[in-house]
Structure formats: structure tokens, C-alpha cells
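Q: What would this chain look like folded?
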Amino acid sequence: MIFLRKAKLFLINGVILTSTSLLMRGLSLVFNIYIANMVGSETIGIFSLIMSVYSFAITVATSGLGVSCTCIVSEEFAKDNHINGLKAVRTCNLFALLLGIIAGILIILISPFISHYWLKDSVSNLPLYAIALGLPFISISSVIGGYFSSVSKSYKSAISQVFELSIKMIFTIIFLHFTISKGVEAICLSLILADVISELFSFTLNCIMYVFDKRKYCQTRNMPIQMKKRIISIAFPIAVTSFIRSGLSSLKQFLIPLRLELSGLTYSIAVSQYGLISGMVMPILLFANVFISSFSGLLVPEFSRLLAGGNHNRLKTVSNTLFKVSFIFSICVASIFFFFAEEISLAVYQNLESAKWLKFLAPLVIFMYVDNIVDGILKGINDQVGVMCCNILDLAITIAIIFFLVPHIGIMGYIISIIVSEILNFSISCIQLRKKIKYTIPIFEVIVFPIIASILAYIISSFFTFHFSSIVINLICQISVFVIIFVLFVLKDKLNFKTFFNNLLTIKK
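A: My prediction, written as C-alpha cells:
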């Protein structure tokens, strides 16, 4: 009975997070497309490079504190030690404030170097300085978000995220109204300031919700040194590996246009090609990942509880189920991007420039999405450092590919680095998980059959034609028919088709 109640709560939180994330991802995608069409791929490329610095700064500011908060509070609240759980949140917030300030100072110090050597003076230091303003707010918000996840109140994080996105969109539109004609630097500064302001509003709302939520628990003033050591023991290895991973990731992003320039392109064209892939194609491919990532985030506290309770059989059962669902879902999404690449490119960007890359990279969606689930499970069973080490190895190899291949074969070198990165990361993560949990993946049921089902679904759906005046509506109808047929195959005819397939192999033999 208790398990069913927890499962129901997990599902409810997953639905809330997925619905919210889907709304946010949809709005963000539409808004980013609007921005991309307005400012062009070159500006998007420059902004993506600046955001890679922002990402590194956020990694330094958060340093694994959100994960530490989630794990410790989940364990303490499961034992009804609410006081210790709240102490952990308070200590994490103090560390977060300190790290946020340190990260801001670090960005200010390295900004001149980044602007001159990596951005080739395409923008000044000002957009990079603006990044430092929001880091303390982001770091504390990550801790509070970890607390809400641990106590199964993800709807509060969802409210904060929707509020943050709304503020960001409003201020972006206002700022761009005055800066759209003033060049790349002014546009990038506007986009970053809008993001910083939205983080401030989100931080304020998170703090208010946290203060009201913690009132129901008793509190004491004493902070045992053991709690601080416990937080550091979880956060420190995550922080160190995160710094390395994020630093290598930022280095990789800056290397791409620099090495493309050595292939014979101008820096402007190199940044434009980089912006096309990273700022226009990848966001589309990762759009549906919202369904996976929402539940993946919830896996951390849930698997922490199962591990703390020594329920290893349940760990294996849940892992098997997650693999089945995520594989089938990701194959469906990958098939949509592969079969409808041209239609999606026309509907989204009004050109076919991104179509070939959407089709070419579509199969990687399977590895990207399932790897997200694997990482969530590994973090839940306290193997966060293993996840980070995997990412570091992946980044080191892809940086080597970019450094040596891109100057000789251009943009295809970048594409190869993406393919190697995703497959390598997925493979290593699965091996790591296999050492901890003896999961099983029925290859035919979760991989072979869904692929066959997607091909048949596309063939059948191609007989349905729509002639609405809007390209978008036609595309939605086509994809809807495809998904319905795919689901019918997977849910209804799977066993019959498997028998037919086996019989066919027997006849051939």
C-alpha cells in the first residue's frame, strides 16, 4: 500500500514536471526560433559561445549542491529527521551564496581573455560581465529546487520555472525592441540581461515558497559539523568533476568555430555554421527530451530511497521498465525527425538549411534520450562522480576529434564529434549502470520491433495527405497520424508481429 502511494506520488510529480517542462520547452523553442529568425545564425552562434561561458559559471556556482541537498534531505525526511534535513538546506544555501560570488568574480577576471582570444573581439567584455550578476541567485535557487524535489513538491519548482520563463520572454522582447538594430554585442547583452532579471525574480519566488513550506517542521539553531562534512563529501567530488567537465565543454564550444576557420572559412561563416548546428538543429532534436528529463530528475530521490532501504530487486525492476519505455519513446521521436526533416525545417525556419542535419543526426536522439535516464539512475544510486568522469572522458575525446579533424574536413568534423560523443557517453553510462544494477534489455521488444513499427507507420501515414493552408498544421496532422499508427503497432500488434517475424526467419532457414 505504501509502495502504491509512493508510486502514485512519483507519477503525479512526473506528470506535473513533464507538463510544465513541455509547456516551457515548447514556448522556449518557439521563442528561440523567433529570436533566431530575427537576428540570424551568426548572432546565434556568438550568443551560444557566450552561453557556454555562462554554463561553466553556473557549474562553478552550483557545484553539485543541488544534488547534495536532494540526496541528504530525501534520506533524512525518509527517517523523519526533518530538523537535519532543514539544516542541510540551510548549509547548502550558505555554500551556494559563497560559490555564486566566487563564480561571478572568476567570470569578471577571465572575460578579457575570452573576449579577445576566443570571441575574436566580436563583442566586448560587457555581455560577459553581465553573466556574473545572476550567479548567486542561480546557485541558491538550485539548492531550493533540490529541496522541493526531495520532498516531492516538484510543482513548486514548476511554478518557479514558468514564472522565470515568462519574465525572461517579456524582458527579452522589451530589450530587443531597442537593440535589434545596434549590432551583435547589444543583442547578446539584451538576451543575457533578460536572463539575469528572470533569475532574480525566480530566486525571490523560490525563497518565498521555501520559507512557507519549512514552517511545518521544527527547527533548531545548532549546526553540527557532521552535516557540513556530509554535504561536502557529496558535493566536493561532484564539484571537481563538474568544473572539469564544464570547462572542457566550454573549451569544446569555442574550439569549433576556431578550427572551422582553419578549414578555410571566415570567422563569421564559421560562427554561422556553428550557430546553425548548436543553436538551431540541436534544440529541435532535444525538444521531446522534456518527457524523459522530467522523470529523470525525479529518479534521483526515488532511487536514493530505494538504495537506502536496500531494495535491490525493486531497483532492477524499475530500471528495466524505464529502459523499455525510454527506448520505445526515443525511437518514435528519432523516426519523426528522420522521416519529416524537410517538413520540420520548412515549418520552423522557412528554409531547408537545417533539414539535412536534422535527418543526419536524428538516430542520435535514441542515445541522447536513453542516456538521460541512465544518468538519472546513476545519480540516484550515488554514482554522480562516475557520471561526471564519463562526461569528462567523452569531452576529452570529442575535443581531440574537433582539434584534428575539423580543420581538414570542416563542418563534418564537428558532426562526427557529436556522433562519437553521444554514442560513447551512452555506452560508458550503460556499462557503469550494469556494474551496479543487473538490468536486462530485450533487444527485439524495445529496439528492433519499434524500429520496424516506425517504418511501417511512416509508409501507412504517407497515404494520408492534408491540404490546409498552414504548413505547420499539415505537419502536425502528419506527425499525429504517424504517432497514432506507431503506438497501435507497439501496444496492440507487437506480439503478433513478433511471431510473424520469427516464422519468417524459420521459413528462410
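Confidence is low (pLDDT under 50) at residues 503-509.
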